[in-house]
Amino acid sequence: MTRASLLTGIGELVTFDPVHDGPLGIVHDAALLSVDGRIAWTGPAGDAPHADADEVRDAGGAAVLPGFVDSHTHLVFAGDRSGEFEARMAGRPYSAGGIRSTVAATRAASDDRLRNHIDRFSAELRAQGTTTFEVKSGYGLTVNDEERSLRLAREVTAETTFLGAHVIPPEFADDPDGYVDLVTGPMLDACAPHARWIDVFCETGAFDPDQSRRILTAGAARGLGLRLHASQLGPGDGIALAVELGAAAVDHCTYPTERDIELLAGSDTVAGLLPGVEFSTRHPYPDARRLIDAGVRVALASDCNPGSSFTSSMAFCIAVAVRDMGMTVGEALRAATLGGAESLRRDDVGHLRVGARADYVVLDAPSSVHLAYRPGVPLVSRTVVGGV
Q1: For a disulfide at 337, which of 66, 114, 166, 241, Cβ 3.0-4.6 Å?
Q2: Distance (Å, rounded) from C-alpha 56 to C-alpha 164?
């Protein structure tokens, strides 16, 4: 049975639909009609098709925007690394090595404990306006633990990423190529049925470009889309590798070279910027202004994980991007919605054009500018996913 819902009295509606005003597709004093979980109409409230609606709600002048699309999270884990964070704030530098402590805790956790963690973080994301999110494995690093991580992640999202190549686990410290053999062989065989993507941490202390190429090529042969972690800790070859292989996204991009930026600007690869990481590690923030001015497509994501960015708030990421990365509010909002969708190669989310999934956020504020204007304030009053 068809069900149509009309939301009217919207103070500011952000659609990213070119039929409306400006690059954000903004409509003031607006309304939105959804039918069976899809956007059917947007426009001025005075023109709203009331006769087509089974129910009518009034937003009371609030701003409405597309649900956030978080294209980079690590939600399958156990353990706590608050002590590591405290030490970093006291001056100890960040390194990839801390991941191994989470690996040990995750391996020791039961399925039920991991599932409870995932459910709790998923609810946390939803409450803060995130309607689509990606989840990586990478804290198991054995065939069984990586497989169960992805199997559990698949219970909450279709956007699952096999990250067996997160770091070399302790038992392979003297045989890194042997671990790459495991990742590209039995581990990939077990994990591919539960994953849409494959990712590699191509960084000093993790995987070098040759190992990364081998892993990504193996994943592509199994039909997985490609993603990379690269240039988080310093310049490297990861961004160029991502572009060469046609990866959907290369994330971090804190230290891109001029050549990296040229390559990204001439490609379909999205640069995922993760400001929560720099906030938590005290590395310099990515220069988003430099990337955007060069024509690079960018996404903002939380990188929610227990070590380097333990935040699930996309609103926080928007505020930091505006304050410290040279982005306008509109650019940051686009990167946190439509940019995330592009990173995940999705055309049904991240915007409110006709035919899109009815995923949207109602703010306790009159405009989206308040996401950066009022940092740390819980402004999301309602999150709607598929019209519900």
Answers
A1: 66
A2: 47
Both structure tokens of 113: 């404990």
Q: How far apart are CA 224 and CA 167, in angstroms?
A: 20
What is the C-alpha to C-alpha distance for residues 278 and 289, in angstroms, rounded to an integer?
A: 16
**Beta bridge partners of residue 6, listed in sequence order:** 33, 56
Residue pointed to by tokens 């963690």: 117
Cα–Cα distance, 363 to 345 (Å, whole number): 27
Q: Residue 19, SS3?
A: coil
Distance CA 289, CA 310 (A): 25
Residue type, 383: T
What residue type is assigned to position 7 of the chain? L
Query: Looking at this protein, which amino acid is placed at residue 230?
Result: A
Where does the chain have alpha helices with state H? 82-89, 99-108, 111-127, 143-153, 176-182, 188-191, 209-221, 238-245, 258-265, 275-281, 288-293, 314-324, 329-336, 338-343, 370-373
Per-residue tens of pLDDT for the chain, all 388 residues: 789 999 999 999 999 999 998 999 999 999 999 999 999 999 999 999 998 999 999 999 999 999 999 999 999 999 999 988 898 899 887 665 578 889 999 999 999 999 999 999 999 999 999 999 999 999 999 999 999 999 999 999 999 999 999 999 999 999 999 999 999 999 999 999 999 999 999 998 899 999 999 999 999 999 999 999 999 999 999 999 999 999 999 999 999 999 999 999 999 999 999 999 999 999 999 999 999 999 999 999 999 999 999 999 999 999 999 999 999 999 999 999 999 999 999 999 999 999 999 999 999 999 999 999 999 999 999 999 999 9
Would you give the DSSP letter of residue 364? S
Look at the block and give the residue holding tokens 């199994």.
Answer: 222
Match 């039920």 to its residue by tokens.
112
Please state the length of the chain.
388
What CA–CA distance (Å, rounded) separates 111 from 308?
A: 24
The residue whose two tokens read 């990478």 is: 138
Query: Among candidates 373, 312, 360, which has minimal Cα distance to 123?
Result: 312
Torsion of CA 321, 295, 198, 216, to 10 degrees: -140
Collect all residues with Cβ–Cβ distance below 8 Å to 293 and sequence separation of at least 6. none
Q: Which two tokens stand for residue 204?
A: 């000093």
Rounded CA gap, 277 and 217, in Å? 28
Q: What is the DSSP string of 273-316?
A: E-HHHHHHH-PPPP-HHHHHHTT--EEE---BBTTTB----HHH
Residue 249 backbone class (left: φ over 0; alpha: ψ -120 to 50; beta: rest): beta
